[in-house]
Model the fold of this input.
Amino acid sequence: MTLCCARIGDAVEIAKKHNPKVVGIPELCGWLSKKGVKQTAEMNKGGTQTVDDIKVTMVHADHSCGIKDGDELVYGGEACGYVVEFSNGMKIYHAGDTNVFGDMKIIRELYAPEIAMIPIGDHYTMGPREAAYACNLLKPKTVIPMHFGTFPPLIGRPSDLKKLVPDVEIREMKPGETIT
Done:
């Protein structure tokens, strides 16, 4: 999961409670370590590392990347996304906070993710129109829309994306839901 965004949410608290290995760009991992996160695994774009039996590759994203830390905005490193490959060969692309960019085609050519988690909210990320273009570049079988509907400016909706890419399965997830 990419945590490098203006609202890092509960990541520090969750990481302290459950002690997972947190993969991230070096600036983010450094900040998390200063906040008491014990296990960070830094890397940079283009790199791949294996965490247990999961391969994680960091890829480009096109977005700002700051961390709200009290009254400060701290540089969080460059925005990034991840391609995650499970031991069964399934590949998922988590685009992070991003706009559509032409190199999504390279992500498709190098990694061929079957599932893509793409922001659709608009205003702070791409909206459904741009997400549909991203689908054309990535050619996933399934898209899980994200970063929408959490506060008023994020007006994009999964139904809007579905109208623009009728041949792609759009899976809207609810908080706490698991897809198998």
User: Anything to note?
Assistant: Residues 62 and 98 are 5 Å apart (CA to CA). The chain has a mean pLDDT of 93.
